[in-house]
Design brief:
2 domains, 141 residues, globular, alpha+beta
Length: 141
């Protein structure tokens, strides 16, 4: 077998491997029976969104929210850098001050609901004073 023939054979095998691997990844990422639509996040009010630039975390009182979200990925998980703002509630929430800091945001655990896939977990990591803090927040509960 010539070098050219070996190259063609290896290229074909490698191509088949890549196609098969991608199909296997899609099969793992999309459970059987799940909707094939893009995963979205549900805001407090209005239509579900893809890659929103802002997101209110505490819908009841608006005491925590995300702004300036720049999404670096959006698939079965999503990741963004942005600004996390929270009311420090000092001495109590009505008299508190809003404090902002840079944040890393991750959305995960998509779940199909009525033919639409929604993220069900929000993770926020941020710096508060000299410490790094983080929390998880359940969406659509």
């Amino acid at each position: 077998m010539t070098n050219r023939a070996v190259r063609y054979l290896l290229t074909g095998v490698l191509g088949l491997f890549v196609v098969t691997s991608c199909a296997a990844i899609d099969a793992v990422a999309m459970p059987a029976g799940a909707s094939s639509t893009r995963v979205v996040i549900q805001p407090c009010a209005g239509k579900a969104e893809v890659r929103p630039s802002t997101f209110t975390i505490s819908c009841a009182d608006g005491n925590s929210y995300l702004t300036k979200l720049k999404w670096s990925s959006w698939g079965s998980t999503a990741r963004a850098d942005g600004v996390f703002t929270i009311n420090n509630c000092d001495p109590y929430c009505a008299a508190g001050k809003f404090v902002s800091s840079e944040a890393v945001v991750t959305l995960s655990k998509p779940k199909a609901v009525k033919g639409q896939r929604f993220f069900t977990n929000l993770h926020v990591g941020y710096v508060s004073g000299p410490k790094f803090k983080s929390f998880n927040f359940a969406l659509l509960t």
